[in-house]
Fold:
Amino acid sequence: MGESLETAKSTLERVMEALRGSSKASESELRDLLTRLQAARNTLIQNERKIWLRTKAGKEMLSDYGEASLKLLGAVESGSGLEEALTEVEVQAKRISDEIRKRSMVVT
Structure:
């Protein structure tokens, strides 16, 4: 689990560095992309210690998140499909957030 989590986090960091070094987007577009990317990355950082991430479902989610992160890195490097790849990373981050919300509900 730790490896896939760390891989996804480092991949997203590399994506952020690549975006900052890219001159293809305007400053406002770049700021928007980086904000969206940081929000998706924060989902991992805030929840990396959750015990349920060690379960089968958690490992699958982390694996999907990692794959989406790698696709995003490829899109940034190739210069095409960036929006779709970023949306996929956001979808995976939302899946994790939704699962966290579901698991933290208090039964009364």
